[in-house]
Design a protein that fits this description.
Distance between the termini of chain B: 36 Å
Number of strands of chain A: 13
Oligomer: heterodimer
Strand order of the largest sheet of chain A: 5-6-7-3-8-9
Radius of gyration of chain B: 21 Å
Strand content of chain B: under 5%
CATH topology of the largest domain in chain A: Rossmann fold
Order of helices and strands of chain B: HHHHHHHHHHHH
Distance between the termini of chain A: 38 Å
CATH architecture of the largest domain in chain A: 3-Layer(aba) Sandwich
Largest sheet of chain B: none
Number of helices of chain A: 11
Helix content of chain A: 25-40%
Structural class of chain A: alpha/beta
Shape of chain B: globular
Structural class of chain B: mainly alpha
Number of domains of chain A: 2
Radius of gyration of chain A: 23 Å
Number of strands of chain B: 0
Order of helices and strands of chain A: HEEEHEHEHHHEHEHEEHEEEHEH
Number of helices of chain B: 12
Shape of chain A: globular
Amino acid sequence: MSGAAAAERLIEVDGVEKVFSVRRKAGRLRRVRQEVRAVDGISFRVPRGEMVGYIGPNGAGKSTTIKMLTGILVPSGGRLRIAGIDPARERTRLARRIGVVFGQRTTLWWDLPLKDSYELVRRMYRVPDSTYRANLERCVDLLDLGPLLTVPVRQLSLGQRMRGDIAAALLHDPEVLYLDEPTIGLDVVSKAKVREFLREVNTERGTTVLLTTHDLTDIEQLCRRVMVIDHGRLVYDGGLDGLRAAGDGERTLVVDLARELPPIDGVPGARTVRVDGPRQWLAFPASQSAAPLVAAVAARYPLVDLSVREPDIETLIAELYAGGGTRWDVAEDGGKTGDAL
Amino acid sequence: MASGRTVAEPRGGRGRAAEVARGLAAYGLIVRMWVRSTLAYRTSFVMMTVGNFAANGLDFVAIMLMFSQIESLGGFTLPEVAFLYGTSGIALGLADLLLGSIEGLGRRIRDGTLDTLLLRPVPVFAQIAADRFALRRAGRITQALLVLGWALPRIEVDWTVGRVLMVPMMAVCGTAIFAAVFTAGAAFQFWAQDAAEVQNSFTYGGNALLQYPPTVFAKELVRGVTYLVPLAFVNWLPALRLLGHPDPLGLPGWVDFLGPVVAALMCTGAGLAWRLGLRGYRSTGS
């Protein structure tokens, strides 16, 4: 493969499937084998240096995809390449070129100082001294790990440990970084710090990042491209704005009025969906600007306070399917979509 | 991060030998981490080690008490039983110390942490064998060594170079045989995650059996540990030869020297079972 082509598509996924066979109870003793298509023929490309959000409801096939991309699981069908390497066949060779962070599973050594875990990474991955020192210094700097290096991991807070885990995944200069829920359970400050660091790693070092999350803010702040998986199929692949449009996503304007009033009406493009005392909720299309709406309400009603709520990811995805007709599939074998569900 | 792609490729090619070397290096690294983790709780470690030593010590005291009432057990004198006890204890102790933690595989599969081991550039077997390495298990080895040291000058053997060499050979083959049982048991956990107890009955249970002369057990049981799970090759068969006792099963004499062959076959079989299990895990994810 030529260098240019390899750079063009660092991650190549073609019609990849994963079928599990599970046994279900069917009566007192009888067990029935049932096939579950956890990943049902997905295809995508990720060029070097891109940061992609990979989202979908629980059980949609996100983790299974990540496990196939990292070589933990062997696909049941399709073709998969990371930097030209087949993860299923050359798992340990691939391991040197990727970094993985599972948000709910630390790889750090519980009873030892943080720096000991890093030392193990250096020796296990055989990271050259100069590379190791430079990477560690950079991570310590950007993630404020300095004072934590000598602290046993069990004494770190969740946010500190997450930062420690992210640094551990980057010490061997991976070309691809997979993050599974990197901000789960973190407070606002820690979340911001983690996001800032990831942006830095992506832009400065050119590390390709694949991010799964339930936090739409992660996606909004970090990813220009987002892929949505549901029932094992890629149902959307594109910009975040496009996702809003595709899902007919509505935003909500929440207004606090000076007193209780009948539902607001006569505001073009918006409809009042809920009234609770002086507070009212107005839904309007995601594509529409909130400013004229606010102006219209403020001109006619005694406005005290307001906020605009974005549709959350679960709602967007649910809407993506509602009615079935709005659904579209970006997989190359889109013809199969109709009868899959 | 530092510029350029400076990630080291595996040294020494991708052959089996290189993989084994990488596995051993990783094993050493992880063992060191666990030892240091253990020493973070120094008092606990000391107490566990002493406890381990004492519990095993009492085990032998029971045998000594028994001999205060009887002259011989199944035709074996106390030093001869001590010889069986020591050789079996050393073999199990070493296997347990080196890779006994492998029985934790089921737990790692259940809580999903096996996946994090699969993400590292070293063989999973080396990582799981070193997992939770417990130095306190050296307590059993020390105790077994002491019992063996007491027995050796007291057993009636016409020592030749060959007979002297048989003793370390028994330890090595015995360790390999028990290691194979540990590994096969762990491999089985890829399919049945809570099967650790089955394996324990062969390892710890097997050791309890091998501490006593084969002549005190029913023939069917002796046959079972000779042909089915050939633990008899850990110490029974070579010890019968060394101590000049007749074989209760009446096997040909050369069988007593098959220990290394049996150990090699068992390790190969266990290795295959492990590979099969890991492959199964990677295709089913459970």
